[in-house]
Specification:
With about 450 residues, this protein is of the alpha+beta class. The chain folds into two domains: about 190 residues, Immunoglobulin-like; about 180 residues, Four Helix Bundle (Hemerythrin (Met), subunit A). The chain is built from eight helices and 19 strands. The strands form five sheets. It has a seven-stranded antiparallel sheet with strand order 7-6-5-4-13-14-15, with no helix packed on it. A hairpin with a 6-residue loop joins strand 5 and strand 6.
């Protein structure tokens, strides 16, 4: 009888088998899984924390396989450990719609935090499959053994007989097994009602998904509205709407920051918060807090009057809102790239974000033109009022005919008929033109 312990998970079309050579600490392994999944992994232990894993995915040429020995700490992404030596044999390849992984892990029966019991019929084991391209995740094709892997979409546990797996045979025995025959045990139901057959299918990175949805709504829905309402003239007309929109905007930023921090802690590439997406995210959040403070100062100080609209605080608030939105548009693209989103999703985001940006620019330009025309009209009216006692110099409306009045000292005003025109004549007393009198 072959010294093999294997399991076939029909729901996932996946087969896993091992062989334990006697008198050493090596492990011969064999895995096949559909290329529908981005990666396949075999874990030694009852839970992810402190377990040892072998994770495989297509190499950069799309034909060969990259194998990565990793150690898991808590519920975080297992981290590549170069102290373990793994060799793949010639059977390892991407064969049509399947990944075939066959090889030997040398001195891998013990690791920091655990070990493999070589004399039991109930050795706890785990398996997992990475998210598929159908879920919006781009296919992994890398030679990097430390590449970031997205959270599994299917996983399960089973018990393996290491007694049955111990013996000579090597990887050749493993690759000749019948995928439909299990010499090990079936997946065990350790997840309650979530795994009636011992398999969990449809598991997703819920934190990352929540973060993406929250920030998508904030960036592509609320932010454009906030930018338009904060443009000055509309702000003076609808201050309450702008305040409510800004409040929801800030709440979404807080929720996005919280889910982003929590999700970042699960992955090796993001747990140090040093990626461009994370750094810009923190900058955007604190800029949002500053803009909130400026907005409150504007309202409390009644600076949104005609004079306040041109104040430095109002200008900083208005342009700060616009800069924050542009920063968040860039943030969205960096986030999709960090999440290994599919090319179609990336293109869709770029098109939608670009269209939103152009639409907002167009609306702001229209508001500026309308406001400038009204301002020029008001300025023309004011200028006309200064000249000619408040009557426009180009005002051709005739004055109403009124009777003139003339007073002399404290005497009663004398009415001069409208058809009488004053004229000057020389007096007969010879006083000259200096003594002109009005008759």
């Amino acid at each position: 009888m072959a010294s093999v312990s294997n399991i076939h998970i029909s729901q996932l079309a996946t087969t896993i088998a091992i062989n334990l050579p006697p008198n050493n600490n090596d492990i011969n392994f064999y895995m096949t899984a559909p290329t529908y999944y981005s990666w396949v992994g075999l874990g030694f232990g009852a839970q992810m924390a402190n377990s040892f894993m072998l994770m495989a995915y297509p190499a950069s040429d799309g034909k060969h396989i990259t194998i990565s020995p990793r150690l898991a700490s808590g519920d975080r992404e297992p981290q590549f450990d170069r102290s373990y030596r793994v060799r793949l044999d010639g059977n390892s390849t991407v064969d049509g719609s399947y990944m075939v992984v066959s090889g030997t892990c040398f001195n891998c029966r013990s690791w920091a935090g655990g070990s493999l019991d070589s004399n039991t019929n109930n050795q706890p084991m785990m398996y997992a499959l990475g998210p598929s391209t159908a879920s919006g995740t781009s296919r992994i094709a890398s030679n990097d053994q430390g590449v970031t892997l997205q959270k599994h979409t299917a996983y399960g546990r089973y018990l393996m007989s290491t007694i049955q797996a111990t013996g000579y045979g090597g990887t050749g025995v493993l690759t000749s097994i019948d995928n439909q025959v299990n010499t090990g045990t079936q997946p065990v139901n350790t997840y309650g009602t979530n795994s009636p057959n011992g398999v969990v299918i449809g598991d997703h990175d819920t934190l990352g998904l929540a973060h993406g949805i929250i920030m998508g709504v904030a960036t592509l829905v609320l932010a454009p509205v906030d930018v338009i309402l904060g443009g000055g003239r509309l702000l003076a007309s609808f201050p309450l709407i702008h305040a409510i929109c800004s409040l929801f905007y800030l709440l979404l930023l807080i929720a996005g920051l919280g889910t982003g921090i929590k999700a970042s802690a699960e992955y090796v590439a993001t747990q140090h918060f040093s990626t461009a997406h994370q750094v810009l995210g923190f900058i955007a959040f604190f800029l949002g807090l500053v803009l909130l403070g400026l907005g409150i100062a504007l309202h409390v100080g009644r600076a949104l009057s005609s004079a306040g609209e041109r104040g430095i605080v109002a200008v900083a608030h208005k342009w700060g809102i616009r800069f924050l939105w542009v920063l968040m548009l860039i943030e969205g693209g960096l986030g999709l790239q960090l999440a290994h989103a599919s090319l179609g999703l990336m293109i869709g985001y770029i098109v939608f974000a670009g269209a939103s940006f152009l639409a907002v620019v167009f609306v702001l330009a229209c508001l500026w033109c309308i406001g400038g025309r009204r301002s020029r009209t008001r300025d023309g009216v004011r200028t006309a009022g200064i000249v000619d006692g408040g009557r426009g110099v180009f005002n051709t409306t005739p004055r109403k005919s009124v009777n003139s009045r003339k007073t002399s000292g404290d005497s009663e005003p004398v009415i001069i008929p409208d058809n009488r025109h004053p004229r000057y004549v020389e007096p007969s007393n010879g006083m000259g033109t200096l003594n002109k009198v009005l008759i």
